[in-house]
Amino acid sequence: MSTPDAAAITPSSPSRTRAVPEPTAGAPRRWGSLGPVGLVLAGAVSVQFGGALAVSLMPRAGALGVVALRLLVAAVVLLLVCRPRLRGHSRADWGTVIVFGITMATMNGLFYQSVARIPLGAAVTLEVLGPLALSVLTSRRLINVVWAGLALAGVFLLSGGGFDSLDPIGVAFALGAGAMWAGYIVFSARTGRRFPQADGLALALAVGALLFLPLGIAESGAKLIDPVTLGLGAAVAILSSVLPYTLELLALRRMPAPTFAVLMSLEPAVAATAGFLVLDQALSTAQSVAIALVIGASMGAVRTQVGRGKAKS
To answer: Closest by alpha carbon to 191, among 102, 60, 292, 286?
Structure first.
């Protein structure tokens, strides 16, 4: 997958963003910088706890079945809520949303194939290398490269220093999901600028659902309509797709993509926390230090963005 240029992925200023209103006069100036960070953090918590639930669902529906349920339910929910207009969009708008949907579906498919073979924490750790690479390759500021490097050190420490004991196919799927994650960041930002509210996301999820539904049916068949499977699939869709994708799309309208990509380094830390709380997986000292490193890198990226915003105000 080719890496886009920085100008193509950096969100425009508020005056050029159609879907985001200008802050009111009484709103604090720094809210524009801090608000997106809260959106990203909330999305990370939601998606990782949803991922833990998806792992428990895989024995019932299979990896492709879980992806199909997740995308289908999420698409139905957002289409009903947003009711996006189908007319009045340019060919470029439709091209962007279709590529976004294909990228999102592929990212999910590869990731769930990965967690079917290797532990969730390791899969997320490998997957986050995609956003980190995007941050390094597209950043125009040396300090962002430093934060990305610090986060990368934490990511490898969280992996235990290597992945040689893992299923190589699972590792390959996770790395592929990471590449798609980088693409997801790019096209989420572009879609957010071209469509109002979450309309573009709803349409992209519909594209992804249409792409994966035949694969899910081929793998799981009638298991997908089991009431328990449907209920768990709906929960996974809300936690792993509807909430985080909406929050991230809103965040990317108000945050540079390189900063967003560095913040994605928090995902392994959140995944480790979810594993501890949900799956009773204790954290080692090295893992705790790794989490501190990625949190420190993310805080540094946030402070850099806040300082940049103040300098422009």
So the answer is: 102
Task: For 53-103, write each residue's pLDDT tens digit.
Answer: 887 788 888 888 889 998 999 999 989 988 898 888 889 999 999 999 999
Which residues, including other chains, have CB under 8 Å from residue 264's CB and lie 6 or more apart?
A: 40, 44, 128, 131, 132, 181, 185
The one-letter code for the residue type at 235 is: A
Rg of the chain's alpha carbons, rounded to an integer? 19
- The label of the residue with tokens 């420490």 reads 157
Rounded to whole angstroms, the Cα distance separating 276 from 292 reads 16
- Tell me if residue 141 falls in helix, strand or coil: coil
Contact 175, 69 (CB under 8 A): no
Per-residue burial over 242-258, b if 16 or more Cβ lie within 10 Å, else e, is bbbbbbbbbbbbbbbbb
DSSP 51-88: HHHHHHHHHHH-HHHHHHHHHHHHHHHHHHHH----SS
Report the 10 Å Cβ neighbour count for 151: 32
| Predicted pLDDT of residue 279 | 62
CA distance 121 to 38: 23
Determine the angle formed by the axes of helices 142-158 and 120-127, rounding to 10 degrees: 160
- For residues 124 and 240, give the distance between their C-alpha atoms in angstroms, rounded to a whole number: 13
- Angstrom distance (rounded) from CA 49 to CA 26: 36
List pLDDT tens digits, range 127-174.
877 877 777 777 667 777 787 788 778 777 766 666 666 788 988 999
Residue 129: CB partners within 8 Å, gap ≥ 6? 152, 155, 175, 178
Find, among 123, 106, 110, 104, the residue nearest to 52 by Cα: 123
- The span from the CA of 108 to the CA of 39, in Å, is 21
* pTM of the entire predicted model: 0.71
Of 278, 203, 246, 223, give the one whose Cα is nearest residue 69: 223
